[in-house]
Structure formats: structure tokens, C-alpha cells
UniProtKB/TrEMBL annotation:
Lineage top rank: taxon: Bacteria
Organism of provenance: Paracoccus broussonetiae
Protein name: Uncharacterized protein
Amino acid sequence: MKILQTGLPKMADDLLKAALLERAKREMAARQAKQPEIGEDGLPEPNTGLGRAMRAVRNPINAVNRAFSNIYTLGSLDEIEGAADAAMTDQSFSEARAASRARSDQQTQQYPIMTTAAGLAGAVTSPVAQAVAGAAPAAATLPGKIAVGGATGAGLGAAQGFLEGEGGLSNRLASAGWGTLAGAGVGAAVPALASGAGAAYRGVRNALADRRFIGSVSSDLGISRRGSRLLTDTLGMDDAARMRSALQNTDAMLADAGPSAQGALDTVIQSPGEGARTALRRIDDRAEAAGGRLRGTLDNAMTGSNVGAQGGRQFSDTARLQGDVRKATAGARKSVYDAAYDQPIDYASEAGMRLEGLLKRVPAKAINDANLLMKLDDNPSQQIIARIADDGSVTLDRMPDVRQWDYIKRALDQSASTGEGQGALGGQTPLGNAYKGLSRTIRQALGEASPAYDDATRVAASAIDEVQAIKTGADALRPQVTRAEFEASLDGMSGGELAAVKRGLRQQIDDTLANVRAVASDPNIDARQAAKALGDLSSEAAQDKMKMLLGEDWGPVKSALDDAAQALGLRARVATNSRTFGRQQFGQMIDDSIQPGRIASGEILGPLATPRGILQNITGSTPQAVQRAGASIRNELADVLTRPNALATLNALEAARSANPILPAAGQGISNVLNVLGLRSLPATVPEVRNRLQ
């Protein structure tokens, strides 16, 4: 009983231990059943799901890493791995290197896209590739870039070929040679391809910008795209700066922009149609308005210079103006000059002694001419008694009075402008200038000695002086009259004489513009006549002369002259040969009238016509459609080129171009980037080409 009592607890304890041990064995067996076996590469065996998953992630990463490293080191990864494995394992260097190359080849075949991308990344970031590409000289031209690219590729290809070569030195040198050849070819091709890509981008980009520009012009001006294209191409042939300068006036037309625009208008305006008729009417209205403004401006600037002929005459000229002066000033001149002639000269005064001193400079001919003039004018003044010595000196028995001095001055003026005083080309000889200078000196001295005479010359110039002043103004714009001569002729003139010069100039300008208007309205007159007439008015010399005469009034006159020249010049140019064009166009209209209609010609059949007709109907290019399109474009251009306020139209065109610019250098940045990337990627691309060549 005692034995049983002591044995039962021990048995129970053994049974419990056995049960716990069995349980621990089962749990260990269960855990071992769930834990996969480890393969030689340190990962679970590939026959398990976990092993396959881990290899699916690690293998491509390893392949990308090896491909990147291989190109990064210019193909020397197998050498580096071979040396490392030989040092840490029992393999020889050759065996380890061969194993490394085998792994690289296997990974390239298994992951071609990823390894290629990794290789390109390694090439671009390779310090050696960057150093070689950065050391290459920059070239400005495409041939220069091709040469630099070829040299860069040859250097990188040779180095990489040598490092990737297998076997002895001879094999490596052979591989380097193939690398040089492949690198030179690929390196030279990179700039060409990069430039081509940039050019392609530039062509597409600028074509789209130009299309948007034409669409904007078409929308802004309300014309077709074809008309917009022709308009912008035409304006593009004229100088932009001169174009803007020519369109400053509010009534300026695009046709004023330059020769190309004028030539386009001259062509399209000759064709029949509403656009041509509207354009001609606008040109005529503008020319008439500009002429009216010029006449008003000239009347304001040249006081008392109305050209309208007196006495009901329709026209006037220089001779009639001179006759009008004589008639119009006869009464006033007689009154003031009679008062002056009655005033005695005090020869004891300083002014009188100065006059007396001038007597010795007066030639005998002038005294004789003065006596003759007084006789012809039936003047009551006493005869000038003069004794002329053998040496030509003159001695007067009686000192001249105011009337006699005035006639001596007139005689000198006549000698200056006629005979030996007149130059061959309408100017004055040195002798004529001397006569004129002496006459001017006598008039000034006589005015000081006789204030009444000075008053008379200020109130109204003598008929001879005023008539001569009219002729001076009428001849002012002649090329033979220099600016210096004209300026000298104005010196010392009285207010009446200056008004007469303006009157003569006013008449000459009116006659010139009348000739231009005649050319503009008669197509049989050569437009070169109008161009010459306008050139006479707009030349620098002519405008300098007018500025001398008009002073502050020159600004408005110049503006009005420029406007009139622009308006009348355009009218004259488009009128040239218009009759010939009219005959041609009327003949065309007759031909068109006898052409068969849509039914008779078969145009109405459309797709049922001939194959050629089918295509023409589909594309809208039948002869009739082409003719209608051409007429429509001509009408559009005639309208746009003659619209007023052309500067606003030009601004709209420039705004449209600014919004859609044509960039000649577009794509250059793309070319540069592709060129750099291409050269730096040579370590990745050259081996592929080299392997194909070997």
C-alpha cells in the first residue's frame, strides 16, 4: 500500500512529461513543415511561392543594376567582378570573369528593355562619357557638330571596345578598332539626327503658327484665308519701317504702304467687279479731298495768294498774275510814291551823303536806262543831266531827286535780270549779282534819306519788283535755281515782295498738281509725268526753298503737300494702262458670256461626270469655280487695300503676327538637348553597332 502511494505520483509526472514532449515535437514538426527550404542563392527554393515572388523582384533589379554599372564603367564590369570573385573564392580570374559575362548576357536576353534603359542611364551619367563630351569643342554649324560628334564617338568607342575585348592584347586592339569605327559613325549621326528633329519641330510649330495667323487676319478683316495669305505675303515684301511711316494719316490706305502693295492694287483694280469700283471711288474721293485740303492750307499760309483768275477768267499763270499786280497796285502805288517823290533829299545829312557816294558806282547805262524809263512812263521829273568822261566816270550837273533814284534802281534791276546779267540756265551772272546788290543798297540808302520812300516800299513794292518777285516764286522749285540763289533773292525783300513770291510759288504748285490730276484722270498720259511733277514738289531742295519762304507756315503746308502727293500719286499709278486692262477684261467678259452653262457643260452632273470632273467637283476646282474664286479674291484685295485708316489695319496685322510669331530659331533647344544626350549615350549605343559590325 505504501509502495503504491509513493509510485503513483512519479508515474503521473512521467506521463505528463511525455505528453508535453510529444506536443513540442508536433509543434516543431508543424513549424518545419511551413518554413521553405533555402536555396544556394540565399532565397527560398524557387519551387515555393515565396521564392518565386522574391526572385521576380530581385532578378530584374539585379539586371538593371548590372546593366547600369557595366555601361557606367565603359564595359569593364566583368573585369571588376572577375577580380573580386577570384580574390574571395577558389575561382580563377578568367573563370570569374567568364561567369560575370554569362550573367550579364543572360540578364540582357531575359530583360532587354530594362537593361537597355539602364545602360542608357549609365552612359548619360558616366563621368568618363561626360568628361569626353564636355571636353569636345563647341561648333556653330551642323558640319562642325557632325565632325565633333564623330571624333567624340571614335574616342569613346575605342576605349570601350578595348575594355570589353576578350582574349589577348591583339583581340582587344581589334575590338578597339571596331569600336572606333562604330563610335565615329554613331557620333556623327547624333548631331544630324538632333538637327533633323529640331528642324521638324520648327517646321510643324511655325506652320501651325502661320495657320493661326492667317485665320486671325481672315477673321479680323472679314476676308477669305486665301485673300489673307495674298495680302500678308504682299505686305511682307515692302519695308516695314517705311510702311508704318506712310500710313500715319487717317485717310491713308494699305496701298500706300510700298511698291508691292501698290502693284497689287494696280493689278486687282483693273478687273471688273464691285470691289474694283469701290476702290476706284475711294481713291478718287481721297485725291479730291487731299487736293481741297492743300488748296485751303496754301491759301492760309500764303496770304492774298488766291490763284483764282480775276475778271472771270477760268485759269491764270505767271504772266497774268504779273499783269494783275500792275493793275491792282496802280492806284495805291501812285499815291504813296507821289508822296515819296515830292519829299526832297537832304544831301547834307549822313543818309544824303551816303547816297551821293553811291553815284560813282552807278554805270552810265543805268542812268541812260533810267532816263528812258521816265520818258516812257511820261513822268514829270526833270531829266538827269550827266557828263560821261572818256574813262567812263559820270558827273551829274544836278543831284537826283527821289523819283530819279527810284528809276536808277529800276534800271539796275532790269540789267540784273536781262542781257549780260542773266545766266545761261536761268540764274544770274556775277555782273547780274553786282547789279542786284547795288540796286538793293540804293533802295536801303534812299529809304533812310527819304522816310516817305521807305514807307512806300513797305506799303506796296514797286510793280517791277513785285512782278519780278512773282517770277522768283514761280521759278523757285526749278532744279536750276539753287537753294543759295533762292535764299539770296529773298534778302532785303519788302513785305509786298515776299507776298508776291508766295503768290508765284502758289501758282506754280497749283499748276503742278493740275498736271498730276490730268495724269490721274487720263490713262493715256504716262504716269511718269505725275511722278516727276510730284518729285519736283517733294525733293529735299524744293522743300528747303519752301521752308525758307514760309517759315512757321511750312509745317501745315508740308503735311498737306505730303497728303496730296500720296493721294494723287496713287491715283495716277493705278490709272496707268487702265484702258488696256479694260479692253482685255471686256474681251474676257465676252468670252465668259458665251461659255456653256452648268447644264450644257455637264458641271451640274457632279459625280456622274468624267473622273477628272468628279475630282474637280469634289475639290471645288472646276474652271468655273476657280474663276469665281479668283474674282472674289481680287475684289477682297481691292477692298482691303483701299480702306481708310490703314494704320489700324496694319496694327491688327502686326498684333496677329505677334500673337503667332514665326520663330526661325524654334527647335534649336531641342536639337541641343538631343545632341548632348546622344553624345553622352554613346557608351550604350556604340557596343550594339560594334557587335553587329564584328
